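Take a record:
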Amino acid sequence: MDKQEFLPKNLRILSERAGTVTDLCRRIGINRQQFNKYLAGTHAPSRANLRAIAGFFGLNEEVLFSAPNDFRSMMDGGHFHLFRSLVQSPAMQLFIGEMLRAGGAAEFAGIYERYHYSSIYPGQILRSIFCLYERDGVLMHYYVERFPSLDGTGKVDYRFKYHGLSFLLAGRIFSVDFETIQKNEMTFSNLAAVNRSSRKYIFGVTSGIAATMMRQPVAAKVAMCFVAKGLIRKEHMQRATVLEPGDLSIPREVLNYLNSGNTSIDSA
């Protein structure tokens, strides 16, 4: 399907979250009859109107042309009660204001392959798919982990999905997120971009705290390699899996980082 056909569906998703279409058009400054044509798919927005719509929702223009399921998944990530309450609190608004003045969010936005040694399958490397995006002036993220069955069938035994907030401070990315399928884990990450090569990498440390005594807290080094702009798509998801450390699809820079010193710090 032509990605141009995704736009009307995504505009309807945005309209659902913005109240009435009349109020939305008034706030954006777009004629309602014209906007109705965008929703119906009979007319495409001008570049100026597309920019106005994307800007109103705090999105990059290209994100509006994402597959609707992916787009809804990203938008839903900003509507969990805890995050909504947190972002709307006066103290957080002041903090976010300071972070926005620091700038630089746009250069990090996009899809990454995220690597770290698995705490579920010791000795193997988990490759998950991570997405940073900007919404309503706030840098947010979501990522998906998939653990294949060990019986060789290729079936996915476990799937985890995290949504969270990210903040830029002194050249670092600090993030906090919650697992939203099992709903039993919170993770924190301290990350930094590395510009030593033609490819964009982000290296750092992540720690997880599960709401069960069966899974102990763990901290591990994490490495992310930039893939593309936009939101996670099906072809990206297919690469989420668990790998042997010698797998040739893992970038050398990632392996060098993960294998230097200790790979994880397990709680005593």
